């Protein structure tokens, strides 16, 4: 049954509440823990058992961090890395141009700097070189360096790795591996085909972190000490959230601890980035994914490919400030380009039909730096895997995003093995591809078949899932802080969302560029303020503005609003429906 009877809200969605089993489990958790029902409902939905509550709310890295040696080639990778450090060999780091690649490269640069060593950081240009190692770049690096470390890339790059003649290569990656691995000293990747898959949820920066843990162990065995790795978790947290890695197991502990490190404002690059983004509070996982991450990515998308990695790696505050300001400018440019491509892609996808297992669009001259973001928007809008491709000179370069339960990376990789793509790969939730323009239609048709076999396209617009109902007066700062203990929230662990039932709208106002500020109450003294971003001119915003005394069911996420030294509870409104519907 639809929650509160809402079969179709003002945004066209069906509301779904917690199931009977979740509600029973929540009641049991309340009885055994004494925690608020709202928090216990979230824990029950996340599958936390009564005897796991305490450890889940306070995840410790020492309890959850896997043994690095459980990953194949890990000891060999750390040994070769330390040999280069010990013998003062020349080291190059070949990093992907996204946040995960940038943070991975920055982790190694930071560690080496603290050990009195330097490294060359190389990030390929998205347009001129494309994703991953390429033969000219690897050959050039090998001519000048003894060791090349490929981070967040390399697992499928057989020819490029082979071109690195005269240098050793170590790969630290997390993308899906093929049947064979490149000829290199070590390839550490939890998504190699001969791995168990137990650590498949790690991003590349987490793999790099584990390699540094193993390096630290080998140093201690030799009677030496390495840098403080806990202070580097701000970078791992940023990568984990920005790369949409599932927030489960050790990833929760990495992000939780990393956010604490970030709040200390010790890394010049992240401090400068937070300041240009006007982030005036301690960061949350939301800020990593939607505020800081996009700015780090902006250089690789529309500007200078290595700018984000260099920002994260620098220890010079003045240099960091200059780079952060440039990234802010690139991010504004990215938004403009994205808006144009998004409008064209949506129009094309609608013409093709939005009810199949795959939504896709391709256009001449679409900027390859924004196709991934546009694919994300189409995926969110349609609740289906989406692929967006930019065409140029008879070839398409695209990016895809998937929905929970549908492995897009494996399907893209299969297309490549079948010869329908020039190349392609990725992981479950995201993938990249290159395709000849005359193979575009058959490739997308085949991809749709593969995705449909996994269940893609069976649902309509995504249901709005709710954890329960709250009275306006129950939404307090204290409750929000308790709910945050169940976080961090993100991929694989959606944040709590509540319904405020039968609310009376007492105040509405447009703020900023089309945002709706409002307040509501329950008629018996409880009051709650809220904001709906970008909603003022839409159906949702206008319904609340012109309420005419009607009451509404409101749905959204609770957050703490800090303004003028005052902290108050606020509802970030996502949807609403007339209470008498």
From TrEMBL:
Keywords: Exonuclease, Hydrolase, Nuclease. Gene3D superfamilies: 3.10.310.30, 3.90.1640.30. Pfam families: DHH (PF01368), DHHA1 (PF02272), RecJ_OB (PF17768). One of its GO terms (molecular function) is nucleic acid binding. The keyword Manganese does not apply. InterPro entries: DDH_dom, DHH_sf, DHHA1_dom, RecJ, RecJ_OB, SSDNA_exonuclease_RecJ. This is Single-stranded-DNA-specific exonuclease RecJ.
């Amino acid at each position: 049954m639809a929650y509160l009877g809402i079969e179709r809200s003002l945004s066209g969605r069906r509301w779904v509440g917690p199931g009977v089993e979740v509600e029973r489990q929540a009641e049991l958790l309340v009885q055994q823990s004494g925690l608020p029902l709202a928090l216990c409902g979230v824990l029950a939905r996340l599958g936390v058992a009564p005897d796991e509550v305490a450890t889940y709310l306070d995840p410790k890295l020492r309890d959850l961090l896997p043994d690095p040696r459980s990953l194949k080639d890990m000891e060999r990778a750390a040994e070769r890395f330390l040999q280069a450090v010990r013998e003062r060999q020349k080291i190059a780091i070949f990093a992907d141009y996204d946040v995960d690649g940038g943070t991975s490269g920055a982790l190694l640069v930071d560690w080496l700097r603290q050990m009195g060593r330097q490294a060359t950081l190389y990030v390929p240009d998205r347009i001129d070189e494309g994703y991953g190692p390429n033969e000219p770049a690897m050959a050039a690096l090998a001519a000048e360096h003894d060791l090349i470390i490929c981070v967040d890339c390399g697992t499928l790059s057989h020819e490029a790795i082979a071109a690195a003649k005269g240098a050793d290569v170590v790969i630290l990656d997390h993308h899906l591996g093929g049947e064979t691995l490149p000829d290199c000293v070590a390839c550490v990747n939890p998504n190699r085909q001969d791995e168990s898959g137990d650590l498949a949820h790690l991003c590349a920066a987490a793999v790099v972190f584990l390699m540094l843990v193993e390096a630290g162990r080998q140093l201690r065995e030799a009677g030496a000490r390495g840098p403080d790795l806990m202070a580097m978790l701000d970078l791992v947290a940023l990568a984990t959230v920005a790369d949409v890695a599932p927030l489960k197991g050790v990833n929760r502990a990495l992000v939780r601890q990393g956010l604490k490190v970030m709040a200390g404002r010790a890394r010049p690059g992240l401090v400068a980035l937070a300041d240009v983004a006007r982030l005036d509070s301690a960061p949350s996982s939301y800020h990593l994914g939607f505020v800081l991450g996009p700015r780090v990515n902006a250089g690789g998308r529309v500007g200078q490919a290595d700018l984000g990695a260099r920002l994260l790696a620098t220890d010079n505050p003045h240099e960091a400030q200059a780079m952060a300001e440039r990234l802010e400018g690139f991010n504004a440019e990215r938004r403009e380009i994205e808006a144009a491509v998004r409008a064209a892609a949506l129009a094309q996808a609608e013409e093709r039909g939005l009810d199949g297992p795959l939504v896709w669009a391709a256009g001449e001259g679409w900027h390859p730096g924004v196709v991934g973001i546009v694919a994300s928007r189409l995926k969110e809008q349609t609740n289906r895997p989406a692929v967006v491709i930019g065409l140029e000179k008879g070839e398409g370069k695209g990016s895809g995003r998937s929905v929970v339960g549908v492995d897009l990376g494996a399907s893209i990789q299969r297309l490549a093995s079948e010869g329908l793509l020039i190349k392609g790969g990725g992981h479950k939730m995201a993938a990249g591809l290159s395709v000849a323009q005359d193979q575009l239609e058959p490739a997308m048709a085949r991809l749709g078949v593969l995705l449909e076999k996994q269940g893609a396209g069976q649902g309509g617009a995504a249901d709005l899932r709710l954890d329960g109902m709250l009275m306006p007066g129950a939404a307090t700062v204290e409750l929000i802080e308790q709910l945050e203990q169940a976080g961090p929230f993100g991929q694989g662990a959606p944040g709590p969302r509540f319904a405020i039932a039968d609310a009376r709208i007492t105040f509405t106002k447009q703020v900023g560029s089309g945002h709706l500020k409002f307040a509501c109450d329950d008629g018996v003294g409880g009051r709650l303020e809220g904001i709906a971003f970008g909603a003022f001119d839409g159906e949702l915003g206008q319904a609340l503005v012109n309420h005419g005394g009607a009451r509404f069911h409101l749905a959204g996420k609770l957050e703490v609003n800090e303004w003028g030294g005052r902290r108050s509870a606020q509802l970030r409104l996502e949807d609403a429906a007339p209470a008498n519907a």
